[in-house]
Amino acid sequence: MSPKELVQSFYQSDALFNSKTLDTFLHPEVVLEWNSSKGFLKKDRQGLLQMANDLKIGYETFVVQIHQIVAEDNLVSVHYTHFGTTIENPNQINRLAYFFAIWEIQDGKLYRGYQMSQLP
Q1: DSSP-derived secondary structure for 31-47
Q2: How far apart are CA 47 and CA 2, in angstroms?
Q3: Distance of CA 15 to the CA centre of its chain
Q4: Nearest Cα to 101, choosing from 63, 49, 64, 61?
Q5: Residues 100 and 78 sit within 8 Å (Cβ to Cβ)
Q6: pLDDT tens digit sequence for 3-12
């Protein structure tokens, strides 16, 4: 699978809120540096897996709409919007945030991520 296909598959899967799926995409030494509307976060493998578990508690579903995805060698940039349905209101899909991420792929896994997000 090419780096672009890997990243596309990652965002089209349930990995963002399913730690078992997420685990299959992550390099053992993965690090995500995230500039969010709430400040800077740095997540390692355990932090990312815990975040997926935490999101599973409050959300019924997550859907990602990819707007652009560009790859060069082992780097993949992706611009997307995140949608979700909450446990409290599973019949209404909500726009959660806008994202731009750059992933470095190593050994066929997500290795280094640099991400920015903004609330709608």
Answers
A1: EEEEEETTEEEEEEHHH
A2: 26
A3: 7
A4: 64
A5: yes
A6: 999 999 999 9
